[in-house]
Automatic annotation (TrEMBL):
Family matches, as CDD domains: HATPase_UhpB-NarQ-NarX-like
GO molecular function, one term: kinase activity
UniProt organism field: Kribbella sancticallisti
Limits of the GAF domain: 63-211, 232-382
Name of the featured protein: Two-component system sensor histidine kinase
PANTHER family, alphabetized: NITRATE/NITRITE SENSOR PROTEIN NARX-RELATED, OXYGEN SENSOR HISTIDINE KINASE RESPONSE REGULATOR DOST
Record bears the keyword Aminoacyl-tRNA synthetase: no
Pfam families per the UniProt record, alphabetical: GAF_2 (PF13185), HATPase_c (PF02518), HisKA_3 (PF07730)
Keyword annotations: Kinase, Transferase, Two-component regulatory system
All copies of domain Histidine kinase/HSP90-like ATPase, residue ranges: 491-581
Presence of keyword Iron: no
Taxonomic path: Bacteria, Bacillati, Actinomycetota, Actinomycetes, Propionibacteriales
Amino acid sequence: MGGRSDDARRGWDEGALEFAGLSRVRLDSLLQELLGRVDEIMESEERLRALLDAVVGIGADLDLTSILDRLAKAACDLVGARYGALGVISADGNRMVRFVTHGLTDDEIAAIGPLPQGHGLIGLLIDQPEPLRLKDLADHPLSYGFPPNHPPMRSFLGVPIRTREHAFGNLYLTEKADGAEFTEDDERAVTALAAAAGVVIDNARLYADSERRRRWHEVTTEITQMMLGDFDPQDVLQLIATRAREVSGSVVGAVLVVEGDELVITAMDAPPGFEDQLGRRIPRDRPILGEVLHGDEQVVIEDLALLAESLGRLSAVPGLANLGRTILAPLPAGANSTGGILMVAARRGEPLSVTPGTDLVRMFADQATLALDRAQAQRQKSMLAVLEDRDRIARDLHDLVIQRLFATGLQLQGMRRMVRPDVQDRIGRAVEDIDGTIRDLRAAIFELHHQPGATSLRGDVRGLVDEYAAALGFRPQLVLTGPLDSAVPAVVRPQILAAVRESLSNVVRHAQATMVKVEVEVTGEAVTARVTDNGVGIGPGDRESGLRNLRERAASLGGAVRLESTQPHGTVLELCAPFNTPSS
């Protein structure tokens, strides 16, 4: 009995020892598993804390450029990536408009060359905005290698950034620490960071837009204050070009005004290299310009340098090689303006600070139109004051001065019978001088009624006479009578000038004259141009050949030509045309 109990006790002890050994193994395993879970929790907490720190960091201020720089760095720090980049895509989602890098020095960036344009793997995330994680970039079918001087990169993690359900850009991370792969946790963390960044970026863009609008209202007030008083339109247009450039974040601002069939660069604010462009004239029917002028919407050119190069005009303006995104806004034709274009252009590769859907540039264009209208109205008001003053002077000359001279002439003529013959001759010459003075005064009165800047038949005839003075060797006598500028129809004026020119030309070539008198007068409903000389007269073969052109001109006007010899020698040529010509 005792032996069996000892064996039982011994078996029990051995079982207990085996059970205790198994328990310790299980306990160690559980402890290891517990410690692993604790490490995971600690790591998760660390990652969560790093994520929160990154979110807080990128939202430290609302400057979009600073936010993008901090976001690229925070994403690298969060998952232990050596290199990071943030690509901003265009509003239409088809191309890259900005590329921010982290982990590369300026020298390395310069050595690599042009930044990516949205092809290969970078383009894949643009076309398919979904997270992408790769063990080795080279294994992907869309990977086509790196440019020279580019550092080696293997592991890759790409995550899209969205703002209000719209694609803003993508985060690109490469080269995880110690050559490891990016994990699913890395992807979740960066995706969360991108989601938070989308909110921060959207707020930054809204803030930037509100700041631009605030600045726009300040500029509007500044321009309006300038236009309230007397102002130089050139100064206002220059201010508009400068402020449009500033508010839009562009490098060039310019105002082009329509003059006839051309656009004139009237105001410009630009860096060195564009100085000689101010005042340049450009045909208004050129591609895109005509589209802007005839349309009602602003036109966006994505790459002005590329467009100029394709049209073969890049060499004409070297500064165009540095210009990229450009907005052309039409200046609506106002009550007193003929329209034009406001242009703002960013440096190549840089964005314009104009939020899609806003019309800030168009607002500046409207201000330019208002300035042109206001300036023209101001000029018209000044002109009206001048014309009113001239009318008053003309009335005074006609009603007072001419009447007194006429009365004085009548008195002198009445005294001629009462004096000696030699005195009579002197009085006769004085009366002729008074008559000449009256004619000059009447001519001056007609000149006063002529609007400055408008075409003048009187001025054109005077210029024609002055032109032939050198060829004749003396200045012809000129007599202009009646309201030439106000009464003679526009269709008749070129023919009158052509008749005077042809007559003077014939005198120079054939007459050998020492005296020429040119008369243009308005009598009733007709105008007469008469050229008289004391030359050799009309030769037997000269009459028909010299009259042919003048008769054709007279016939087109419904008038007639008279060519006669004068005594003792010389010629008088006269063209008379009614105002109601067949062609008018």
